[in-house]
Amino acid sequence: MKTKRILFAVLLSIGLFATSCSNDDNDGETIVPIQGKYNLSQTGSIINGQEVLIDAPQNASGCNKDYLDLRLSNAAVMGDYNGSNCALTETTGTYVRSHNDLTLTVGNTSTTSDIMNLTNKELKIKDKTTGIITVYTR
Questions:
Q1: What confidence tier does 127 reach under pLDDT thresholds 50, 70, 90?
Q2: How far is residue 4's CA from residue 133's CA, in Å, rounded to a whole number?
Q3: pLDDT tens-place string over residues 62-105
């Protein structure tokens, strides 16, 4: 009798575990908030099925890293340091996140990227048109 109760309890536990996990799926969408300031770290693409990344050549030597600041108001601010005096040029636009897509709009130009990775420390996006991968770190 005791064995039957233990067996019943184990089967019940397995059944509850299996059904409780089936609908918690987020379809591959990350749940980390996207808002924040990200420093440009690497760029690259996929070559022969392999991801190839290099240090971002857009970052001027001896200057702070260029950045992307995604604000809670859906404003996107892109900072670009250039020249020997590391002059900062900021460009403002907007962004929209829809599931794992990120659309940045500056003026009349919009680019849509797949969010490949989003953690508390990294944002990795892949431009849907060009296939260029850009990695930002916090």
A1: very high
A2: 57
A3: 999 999 999 999 999 999 999 989 999 999 999 999 989 999 99
Q: Which residue has the tokens 């420390």?
A: 121
Q: Could you tell me if residue 53 is left (phi over 0), alpha (psi between -120 and 50 degrees) or otherwise beta?
A: beta
Distance in angstroms (rounded) separating the CA atoms of residues 20 and 33: 25
Two structure tokens written together for 88: 């900062």
- DSSP category for residue 59: S
Report yes or no: 131 and 52 within 8 Å, Cβ to Cβ: no
Continuous segment of H or E residues that includes residue 118 = strand 109-118
Structure tokens at 125: 């996006």
